[in-house]
Design brief:
The protein is α/β, with parallel strands linked by helices. It is built from eight helices and ten strands. The strands form two sheets. Strands 6-7-8-3-9-10 form a six-stranded mixed β-sheet, with helices on both faces. Bound molecules: adenosine-5'-triphosphate. This is ABC transporter-like protein.
């Protein structure tokens, strides 16, 4: 699904967070958004999701203005899994299929997507007995249950330990290749952006400061010299030229959180 932001601005009172953003994302593209804390990344995603209204400009999905409304073809995933604790895993995933009129279909589809995130055997567990990584897998299954055309990811792996995070990146990439949705990922981790994205976009001063294509073959190897060079280049750009240039040891810890 093609997504276009046409001259999008967003202000909160007198504070302008985004100003005249123009962006086109092709169907099936994986785009990562990076930038310093508070630069407006989540605000941009919320505008695309229809959770917040633009001050100016349009969010256009397949030539149709979204008119600041929620669209069933768009799903969003957050840093916290936001599962209903009083519902079993299966029911939580079925919630992603709201609108489906057959219970049998909803159950079969939910079990199928749970299988694809490796959790079919946990379908009748409560969320509370799952690990943090497993809960995020359930959240991913719920987000993908109705096969959205556009998946918005607001730092969904940010709270996971390093190994689980790498596993989840692989899972996300596998599902993106299989399901062919368009993905828009906010991340503070430049390595994560370069592992997953076709394009990495930097937001700074309310505008797009950089839009860089990642043409490395997939799956991408962190140990690869081209990979490391690209991470270093992007990180240096995000940090600004007046900052210390990242070295091999500090770009491995490429968190941009303030
Ligand atoms: N509802 C709101 N009312 C007022 N100001 C807001 C609101 N939402 C966001 N802001 C402000 O907009 C700016 C951008 O916030 P946003 O959450 O989009 O940043 P971010 O880049 O996602 O930050 P982080 O990386 O820390 O999550 C911040 O200064 C924030 O305080």
């Amino acid at each position: 699904m093609e997504l276009t932001l046409a001259n999008v601005s967003k202000s909160f009172g007198t504070k302008t967070v985004l100003e005249g953003i123009n962006l086109n994302i092709q169907p099936g593209e994986f785009v990562a958004i990076v930038g310093r804390s508070g630069c407006g990344k989540s605000t941009m995603l919320r505008l695309v999701a229809g959770l917040d209204a633009t001050t100016n400009g349009q969010v256009i999905l397949n030539s149709q203005d979204l008119h600041n409304r929620i669209n069933p073809n768009i799903r969003m995933m957050f840093q916290d899994p936001r599962l209903l604790p009083w519902q079993r895993v299966l029911t939580n995933v079925e919630l992603g299929l709201l609108g489906s009129n057959s219970k049998v279909y909803a159950k079969q589809t939910a079990l199928q997507i749970l299988r694809s995130v490796g959790l079919e055997d946990r379908a009748y567990d409560w969320p509370a007995v799952l690990s943090g990584g497993q809960r995020q897998r359930v959240a991913l299954a719920r987000a993908l249950a109705n096969r959205p055309a556009l998946l918005l990811l607001d730092e969904p792996l940010g709270a996971l330990d390093a190994l689980t995070r790498i596993e989840m990146q692989q899972l996300l990439e596998d599902l993106w290749i299989k399901e062919q949705f368009t993905a828009l990922l906010i991340t503070h981790d430049v390595e994560e952006a370069v592992v997953l994205a076709d394009r990495v976009i930097l937001i700074e001063n309310g505008q797009i400061g950089m839009d860089i294509r990642v043409s490395l073959p997939r799956p991408r190897a962190r140990g690869d010299i081209q990979f490391a060079k690209l991470v270093e280049k992007i990180l240096a750009r995000v940090m600004g030229k007046t900052q210390l240039q990242p070295t091999e040891s500090n770009y491995a810890l490429s968190s941009l959180s303030a």
